[in-house]
Amino acid sequence: MHPFHPSYVFTVLVQLFPYIGVTLLMMLGTVIFGGAIGILLAKAKIKRRIVPRAIAEVYTYLTRCVPSIIMLFIVYYGVPALLLQFGININNFNKGVFVITAFSILFASNLGEVFRAAYLAVDPGQREAAVCSGLSEFQAFYRIILPQAAVHALPNFSNMLVNLMKEGALAYSIGLIDVMGEGNLLIGRNQGSYTLETYLGMAIIYWALTYVIELIFGKLEKNLSKGKKHATSVA
Amino acid sequence: MKLNTEFMRETFIASLGGIPKTMLITILTLLVSIPIAFAMALSKLENKKVSSKFVTAYVSFIRGTPIVLQILFIYSLLPSTLNHLIKDVLGLSVNVFKMNKIVYAIIVFSLNNIAVLTELFRSALGTVGHGQMEAAMTVGLTKRQAYRRIIIPQALVAALPNLCNTVIGLIKNTSLAFLMAVQEITAISKMKAAAGYYYIEAYLMIALIYIIVCTVVQLLFALIEHQLSAYKKRLAV
After folding, report:
1. What residues of chain B lie within 8 A of the CB of A12, using their CB?
2. Which of A58, A204, B182, B202 could form a disulfide with B177 if both were Cys (CB 3.0 to 4.6 A apart)?
3. Least confident interval from A186-195, B23-32, B130-139
4. pLDDT at B50 exceeding the cut of 60
5. For position A45, which CATH number holds?
6. Residue A75 is assigned to a structural domain of this protein
7. A190-221, pLDDT tens digit by residue?
8. What was the pLDDT predicted at B234?
9. Domain count along chain A
């Protein structure tokens, strides 16, 4: 049996704390770029034009079947080789670029599904009523549909964020130094001692992050759906 | 960029040999985790004081931490603990370190999958109305009979789409078994790739194999769902 030093867990927590920022930054980047692709996917699926819709469906299907670690490696080895053909050398780029690219490709389909489900959850009558009362399509979307759809999207979005954070831990395998990466370096520096304590510290950090994400989104949902409850109780 | 197609063909065929191992891990994990998860879901639904608190904490911890961390944690903890348990406590002379690595993979994935399935079963059982249980009790079925004949068949239909997602997630997660030195799809082609520096080709082939495996699994589930929801169609007529 390993000797176990509970106090070292706290040392790990303190040492890994600054790297939470890297993990969060990776999530932010993925949500921005993956979200942009996700919006296109959701739009293609809702609009029902055959070609874009088929492309979106195939994209969703394929990315859903590929494990994150495989996608990470494909991007990490594939994209630099591909760009080198055009004379662009990105081999020295920050590892974060590859991580965000890989997870954006993967999570775009999840985000697209979240957006699509949220859009469809809003009664079509809302758009019709908005357009009838003289708003343009654009205004109807931004002022009427989007605020309602956003509330519907919150629970799924929070789930997706937690999944993204957990899958993001795999980024250490291509050398990104986030919570997971620094934790592994720490084990290496200690020459394999305090292994369990380090892993436990990392687990506590991820658990706490999950808890915070779910807490924030739960509160947000409660706050934003206040108006909705009021509207239905009046009707 | 020129892809080495000869190598791709070779890797594809070699990695196909990893599919049985991947499926073995998946199926054994499901067999281990389904009964435990069902019992845990029931204890949470029936609100038993101690066990439902434990279940809540367990599910929250497993779902709140990355699986790669769980793998590394358990893989560094379990062998020496098992060794201690078997040699010093039970006094048996079994060499734990020579045990097939697949056992550890199944333990880790089961521990992870139990948490996912508990939530899944809980929500599926929740979709069956209270009246069903009451009606079953009224006509004289015992609780066990009511679950087996009335509740579970209906809950299963509700659970299937999610169950399909869970199985696909599990298959994707088994790609991490190479961390435990299990020779499945990913490990085999990783090794071939490292020999000739054909990383892109190898990983594209792995992705292709996972897409094929997932397609087969999804088709299977579609078939099962069609069979199991037959009773709904009869009702509609």
Report:
1. none
2. B182
3. A186-195
4. yes
5. 1.10.3720.10
6. yes
7. 887 788 888 999 999 999 999 999 999 999 98
8. 64
9. 1
H or E, element range at A112: helix A95-121
For residue A205, the distance in angstroms to the closest alpha carbon of chain B comes to: 9
What confidence tens digit (pLDDT) does each residue in A135-148 have? 988 899 888 888 88
Tokens coding A134: 């003289």
For B203, which of A74, A84, A167 is closest by C-beta distance?
A74
- Chain B within 8 Å of A27 (Cβ-Cβ)? no
- The predicted complex's ipTM stands at 0.84
How many helices (DSSP H) and strands (DSSP E) are in chain A? Answer: 11, 0
Range of the domain at A68: 6-225
Out of A1, A168, A199, whose CB is closest to B76?
Answer: A199
Q: Is A46 within 8 Å of chain B by CB?
A: no
C-alpha pair distances (Å), B20 with each of B5, B164, B213, B214? 25, 19, 11, 14
Question: 106-145 in A: which are within 8 Å (CB) of B?
Answer: none
Q: Residue A234: its pLDDT value, please?
A: 46
Angle between helix B101-127 and helix B19-45 axes, rounded to 10 deg: 40
Across the interface, whether the CB atoms of B207 and A196 are under 8 A apart is answered: no
Q: Nearest Cβ partner of A62 from B70, B73, B211?
A: B211
Structural domains of chain B sorted by starting position, each given as residue range(s) with its CATH number in brackets: 28-159 (1.10.3720.10)
Please tell me the pTM assigned to this model.
Answer: 0.86
Contact A74 B200 (CB under 8 A): yes
